[in-house]
Amino acid sequence: MKKLVKPYNLLLYFLTIIAFFFVGVSIAGITGAGKNQGLAGGAIVFGYGIIASFFAFASALLFSLKLERNIIIIINKFLTIIVLLFLAYFTLNYYTNVKQKQDQQEIEISNKPTEPIKREPIND
After folding, report:
1. Number of domains in the chain
2. CB of 23 within 8 A of CB of 54?
3. How far apart are CA 45 and CA 48, in angstroms?
4. Would residue 124 count as lying in a domain?
5. Does residue 109 surpass a pLDDT of 70?
6. Between helices 40-66 and 69-93, what is the axis angle to 10°?
7. Does residue 116 form part of some domain?
8. Which H or E run contains 51?
9. Residue 17: how many other CB atoms lie within 10 Å
10. Is 52 inside any structural domain?
11. DSSP conformation class of 123
């Protein structure tokens, strides 16, 4: 039982939760699970991430009991690389797609000429 709370095992749990949350969100994005769902789409995608991280955490608990310290440290390094790659991908995706579209919409709004409202006289 003491082996479950060693620092390298705690790091394994944390990295597993984060990495497999990103995996679940990516799977939801690839399969289009949240498309055409309105406001529920975000909750569906978030749910995929939570479910994937829950099952990965359960398996990480079992792995921490069965595997040796050196193998767990190697897995921690691998999971760290996966988390960093996901963060880099989502950051790059945000700045190339979302931020660019927001900037274009702001430019279009600011370049629209404003015309005075034309009112017709009231004839009673």
Report:
1. 1
2. no
3. 5
4. no
5. no
6. 160
7. no
8. helix 40-66
9. 18
10. yes
11. -
